[in-house]
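Help wanted!
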Amino acid sequence: MKANILTNEELLNHWQGHRALTRRVIEAFPEKELFEYSIGGMRTFADLVKELLSIAVPGLEGIVKNSTEGYNHNLPLKTKADLLNAWDDATPKINDLFMQISEDRFKEDFNLFGEYKFPVIQNILYFVDNEVHHRGQGYVYLRSLNIEPPFFWERE
Amino acid sequence: MKANILTNEELLNHWQGHRALTRRVIEAFPEKELFEYSIGGMRTFADLVKELLSIAVPGLEGIVKNSTEGYNHNLPLKTKADLLNAWDDATPKINDLFMQISEDRFKEDFNLFGEYKFPVIQNILYFVDNEVHHRGQGYVYLRSLNIEPPFFWERE
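Answered by r_m:
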């Protein structure tokens, strides 16, 4: 039987919990390795974080303003402090934009960034999944640098 | 304003989409590296997959049967074929168990595996997040082995 199992506030809190953990992973990297270290030809963790930043607020803005402008992952953030400041700037913007999306809108198709036409709920679940995916990669970078990552279940 | 944004069927489909991708990541590993390769002292991808298998069906069974028995990650699966068969065995069981959980039950606290007392919806979101997290680690293992992982957005 069909059941409604998640509200907008619950998903927002869930995402912000993940974002708090991702912030801790950024902090765990030494400055140099954050911008230079990678494995197997992959991107640095700084580049992955810039991708996350260029999706979260711009993606929600696209949904709320019904704009299909493309994304730009190449943000001018050059230090760990730059990344953390951008991360913290995004936090209240995400809260504000997310809560402007109506129940009906979550169900409607939207051509995110002019490229990804899916129901809004799927687009937003993708934001979260993509963050968990890339952060998992960051965990391997940290472990291979002999740095203990934060506990996965800590979300405050 | 409060909005219901996800149904049980949608979350189940979302999870099974992720499971289809994780299956493809298992397939991408060479037999030997699946069971022997790791980075930074982490577990092998086979061990991570055994963890996922020991959470999904046993976790849902615990919820449905209201049993707080502990988990056992140490499954007797010795080959890639063993892992893939166990993965495929779990697929219809997950569908069946998941749909037995009522709307009210998703909101109730449950002491999963006798250790993790959270609302059922949070326990199940954790199953999915944990899978995405560990699979992201598998992507790094594959890249460092010079093997192209499947596309992250392929979920069929």
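OP: Thanks! One thing I noticed: The first strand of chain A starts at residue 4 and ends at 7.
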